[in-house]
Amino acid sequence: MPITISGFHHAGFLVTDVERAAEFYEKVLGLLLLPRPDLGFPGRWYDLGNGHQLHLMSVTQMPGHADPPRHDRHIALNVPNVQETERKLREMNIAISYGSGRAGNPQLFIRDPDGNAIELRPGA
Asked: Please, what is the Cα angle at 33 between 38 and 22, to 5 degrees?
């Protein structure tokens, strides 16, 4: 039985020049900047409306993918129960990495068959 997805939260993109990227996202797409905590690396967060966000994360060069997957290009999906989701993923032998959100909420990170990172987080 597949896990349950209850919604979309944010997408994250890697960028090699935060200021150049910010000019594009703010001036071309007109996105509004959101507050971003100090995560130990440069980046920007943008409001996509309806609680959805775009997170830009700075890297010196574009990698194939990063380990752990929580610092990589990814989509973030809400799940109704993180523990139940983790149980189901383990039953399917899916490799899991762990993170902690701004409020200390648990995060699960998995990869699709091509290595794209997917964050699973609590939410409706």
From this structure: 90
